[in-house]
Amino acid sequence: ERGPGRRGERERSEEGPAERGPGAAFHMFVLMEDLLDKLKLLSYEEEALRCHNMRPLSRHYFALPTNPGEQFFMFCTLAAWLITKAGRPFEQPQEYDDPNAVISNVLSELRSF
User: Fold this and answer.
1) How many CA atoms does the CB half-sphere of 82 hold within 13 Å?
2) Measured between alpha carbons, how far is 13 from 10 in angstroms, rounded to an integer?
3) Which compartment or compartments is the protein found in (predicted)?
4) 3-state DSSP: the chain helix, strand, coil percent, rounded to 5?
5) How far apart are CA 113 and CA 109, in angstroms?
C-alpha cells in the first residue's frame, strides 16, 4: 500500500489549475519572467542573440504558444548557447534541422553533465 505522503503527492500532480488555486494559471508567466531575468544576467542578448541576429525575448515568450516553430528554434538556440557557456562544445542547431535529432543531442549532452 502507498503511504499517506505518496497519495497526496500524486493527487496534487493530477490536479488542474482550478484545483490548485487561482494563481496557478499564471505560474507559467512567473517562471518565464524568472528565466528571462537569469538569461539577462548571463548577457544572452549580447552573446547569444546578436551573433544569430535574433530579437530579444518578450517577458512571456515561452508562456504563450504563438509560433511553435520559432519558439522551438529559439529554445534550441538558447540551449546550445547555455551548454557552450557551461564549457562544453556544442554545435549550434540550424533552423531546418530535424527537431527530434536536435532535442536528442541536447538531452544527450545534458545527461553527460
Assistant:
1) 17
2) 5
3) Cell projection, Cilium
4) 65, 0, 35
5) 7
CA 57 to chain centre: 12
CA 91/CA 107 separation, integer angstroms = 13
Question: What is d(CA 61, CA 39) in angstroms, rounded to the nearest whole number?
Answer: 13
Break the chain into its structural domains and give their ranges: 24-112
Show the cell assigned to 92.
Answer: 549550434
Q: Give the pLDDT confidence score for residue 52 in this predicted structure.
A: 83
Tens digits of per-residue pLDDT, 23-37? 888 888 999 999 999
Q: Rounded to whole angstroms, how far apart are CA atoms 76 and 106? A: 8
Question: Cβ atoms within 10 A of the Cβ of 108, count?
Answer: 9
